[in-house]
Amino acid sequence: MASSSAQPVFRFAPSPNGRLHLGHALSALTNERFAARMGGRLLLRIEDIDRERCTPALVQALLDDLAWLGVRFEPEVRRQSEHIAGYAAALALLQARDLVYPCFCSRQEVRAAVATQEATSGRPWHVDPDGAPLYPGTCRACDREVAAARIAAGEPHVLRLAMDRAIAEVGDVAFSVIDADGQAKTITAQPARWGDVVLARRDVPTSYHLAVVLDDALQGVTHVVRGRDLEAATDIHVVLQYLLGLPTPLYHFHELLTDGSGRKLAKSRGSESLADLRERGVTAAQIRQRLGFDGGGASADAEPAQPGRRGDQ
Q1: What is the mean pLDDT of the chain?
Q2: How far is CA 144 from CA 95, 105, 138, 147, 150, in A?
Q3: Rounded to whole angstroms, how far apart are CA atoms 24 and 11?
Q4: Domains of the chain, with CATH numbers?
Q5: What pLDDT sits at residue 1?
Q6: 21 within 8 A of 274, measured Cβ to Cβ
Q7: Which of 26, 174, 249, 299 has its CA 20 to 30 A from that of 188?
Q8: 201-226 tens-digit pLDDT
């Protein structure tokens, strides 16, 4: 289900839940380079579905940082928080096909169920590519009327994709990955390794996975250029694209940056922000050169990192 377009379309899609750092700059500049080389369009999307952490001040700071860095996007910016109804409609389609079910398990209950399974089998429980235990399916067979009553009573819950039924519907799926020179290779998706992923929560009525595939399709994105930490998650995205009849873009996964201790740069760890660098007198041109753009190469303290949990690069 590959996408096609007369003109390539790229996008940079950060989450405004903290200040941008060098990892974000690398991703934005990599998208800019691909778009320039291929004569493509470059879009900006603000992934602000987390209403608690994504504040207006951080949105403005994000825009200021990108303007300072000199990355130019097309004028219209898509904000996920303005399209919740569209995500809900897509989720309803999947629910109507019995591909989504409510789960009432807390994180603590999931951990307890996994511990029981491990004790019973004498073997470690399966984990997903991010290292998290696969959901053991406690609520998968919950009676629909009972589940509906629990939801009506206001019981906290999430909505999970029944991955086995999804795979049975779409069959084997694949996606194409391009290298820095645009040469493509085909990757067979392995969605089963993710188990029954969460597609929506009570407090956040969609998930990164669902929102991103809908946004890419609605914006006509043909090339998704993002960090290598998201390569494995593409399994989920391709399955959702097939289930919803959406095109599958071409993908490119760039290396990540690490700090002096070898850890991936992340807002959650307080990695030095672009604003911090700017305050220290570092210029946008120096940032570009440090990351290998506009001449020069990456500095010694900006080394590739290994893939990890879905972060914020």
Answers
A1: 89
A2: 12, 16, 14, 5, 10
A3: 13
A4: 9-81+163-305 (3.40.50.620)
A5: 67
A6: yes
A7: 26
A8: 887 889 999 999 999 999 999 999 99
